[in-house]
Structure formats: C-alpha cells, structure tokens
C-alpha cells in the first residue's frame, strides 16, 4: 500500500498533478473539496468586518479538516492512494490565518485539539501517515500567474495578494524544517510544466517512480 499526498501553494497545480499520479498508479484520487464548497468563496470575498462577524476563516479550516480526515480513512482501503493536499498542511494554513488575526487564539487552540484527536484515531489504523509528499514549489510570481490563469473569480481580488504572500513566504521552511510525517520529493514548478509538457510529465513520473523504488514501495 502506497499513500502519496500532493502539497504546495494555492495555484501550483496540485489537483492536476494528483490526477496524473492517480492515472500512473491506477489509483483513485481524493481531491480537496473546492467545487461546491459554500464557505470557500465567502472566505475570499467577505469584507474584514464580515470575516470578523461570520468567522469564515475558522469555519473553512474546520471544513477542510473534517473532509481531509474522511478522505484519509477512505483512501486506506485502496492499494495505492493519492491525496490532493495533506491534513498536515491544513494545520499550516490555520496557523498562518491565526498569525494574521483571521483565526483567533481560542479558535486555533480548539482547532489543534480537534486535529490532535483525529491524529490519535489515525494511530489505530494500518497506515496513519503518507509514505511520500510531493511538494510543488514555486516562486511567488509563478504562484500569482497560475492563480490568474485558472481564473476562479473569487481568487482574483488584488487585495488577496498580501494573503497569498503570507502563505507562500514560509511554506518552504515549514515543509523542510517542520514537516516530519513522510519523505518529501520537491518539484520546482518554475522549471517544470508537469501538466502541459509531455516531456516534463514523463520526467516527473520517472522521479516519483525512482523515489518509490528506493523506498521499496513499488
């Protein structure tokens, strides 16, 4: 059984890369719940006053947390498993929103208690952590370009630039210094177009297979 999570900044192509991996490994892919998520557009478009009153950042992180936990449990019944973003990254997003004052200290403590309880429950399962995180890394310019290209209306407001930067600036450090759940394969999305270039896609698949072979997982 192989469990892979695809992580990285908003806009860098996690869903597309996860789809490519799923096809290669003949696995179902457990996607981040974006389409049909009623809270997500409100998180991006609400005024600071509405955010304060309605607590959309906290509600969104709780929603992502419960859906991620559900996906992990579902994924464990498959021989190969690909997940679009990890439950560990959810904590990073919640922490950044706490640092920005969008999630209160009390809310963040509650979030961490819920996460700890979920992780304790995962300890009882045959596999509680991924084998590999594929981390999509890119410059801030690439992140902003990709967000613009995919054209989700609620992501395009210029005022969101500071929020995207706050997420991006410490993401590499968090992955390299704090993330300990699995091995990490870094894919530089400034240099590779895994989605649109057949050559880059083949190189990417080869890199993944090479890592999994070294880990005796394929």
Automatic annotation (TrEMBL):
<dbReference type="InterPro" id="IPR027417">
    <property type="entry name" value="P-loop_NTPase"/>
</dbReference>
<feature type="active site" description="Proton acceptor">
    <location>
        <position position="84"/>
    </location>
</feature>
<feature type="binding site">
    <location>
        <begin position="146"/>
        <end position="150"/>
    </location>
    <ligand>
        <name>ATP</name>
    </ligand>
</feature>
<feature type="binding site">
    <location>
        <position position="32"/>
    </location>
    <ligand>
        <name>substrate</name>
    </ligand>
</feature>
<feature type="binding site">
    <location>
        <position position="85"/>
    </location>
    <ligand>
        <name>substrate</name>
    </ligand>
</feature>
<protein>
    <submittedName>
        <fullName>Deoxynucleoside kinase</fullName>
    </submittedName>
</protein>
<feature type="binding site">
    <location>
        <position position="44"/>
    </location>
    <ligand>
        <name>substrate</name>
    </ligand>
</feature>
<dbReference type="GO" id="GO:0019136">
    <property type="term" value="F:deoxynucleoside kinase activity"/>
</dbReference>
<comment type="similarity">
    <text>Belongs to the DCK/DGK family.</text>
</comment>
<dbReference type="InterPro" id="IPR050566">
    <property type="entry name" value="Deoxyribonucleoside_kinase"/>
</dbReference>
<dbReference type="InterPro" id="IPR002624">
    <property type="entry name" value="DCK/DGK"/>
</dbReference>
<keyword id="KW-0418">Kinase</keyword>
<keyword id="KW-0547">Nucleotide-binding</keyword>
<feature type="binding site">
    <location>
        <begin position="8"/>
        <end position="16"/>
    </location>
    <ligand>
        <name>ATP</name>
    </ligand>
</feature>
<keyword id="KW-0067">ATP-binding</keyword>
<feature type="binding site">
    <location>
        <position position="155"/>
    </location>
    <ligand>
        <name>substrate</name>
    </ligand>
</feature>
<dbReference type="InterPro" id="IPR031314">
    <property type="entry name" value="DNK_dom"/>
</dbReference>
<dbReference type="Pfam" id="PF01712">
    <property type="entry name" value="dNK"/>
</dbReference>
<keyword id="KW-0808">Transferase</keyword>
<feature type="binding site">
    <location>
        <position position="61"/>
    </location>
    <ligand>
        <name>substrate</name>
    </ligand>
</feature>
<dbReference type="GO" id="GO:0005524">
    <property type="term" value="F:ATP binding"/>
</dbReference>
<dbReference type="GO" id="GO:0005737">
    <property type="term" value="C:cytoplasm"/>
</dbReference>
<feature type="binding site">
    <location>
        <position position="90"/>
    </location>
    <ligand>
        <name>substrate</name>
    </ligand>
</feature>
<feature type="domain" description="Deoxynucleoside kinase">
    <location>
        <begin position="4"/>
        <end position="212"/>
    </location>
</feature>
């Amino acid at each position: 059984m192989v469990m892979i999570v695809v992580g990285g900044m908003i806009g860098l192509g996690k869903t597309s890369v996860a789809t490519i991996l799923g096809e290669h490994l003949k696995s179902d892919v457990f996607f981040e719940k974006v389409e049909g998520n009623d809270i997500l557009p409100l998180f991006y478009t609400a005024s600071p006053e509405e955010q304060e009153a309605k607590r959309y950042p906290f509600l969104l992180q709780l929603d992502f947390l419960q859906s991620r936990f559900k996906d992990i449990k579902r994924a464990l019944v498959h021989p190969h498993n690909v997940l679009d973003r990890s439950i560990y990254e959810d904590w990073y997003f919640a922490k950044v929103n706490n640092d920005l004052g969008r999630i209160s200290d009390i809310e963040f403590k509650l979030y961490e208690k819920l996460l700890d309880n979920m992780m304790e429950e995962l300890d009882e399962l045959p596999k509680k952590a991924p084998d590999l995180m594929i981390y999509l890394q890119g410059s801030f310019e690439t992140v902003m370009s990709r967000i613009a290209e995919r054209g989700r209306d609620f992501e395009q407001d210029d005022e969101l630039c500071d929020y995207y930067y706050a997420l991006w600036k410490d993401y590499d450090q968090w992955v390299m210094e704090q993330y300990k759940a699995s091995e990490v394969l870094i894919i530089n999305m400034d240099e590779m177009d895994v989605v649109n270039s057949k050559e880059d896609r083949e190189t990417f698949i080869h890199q993944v297979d090479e890592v999994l072979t070294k880990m005796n997982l394929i």
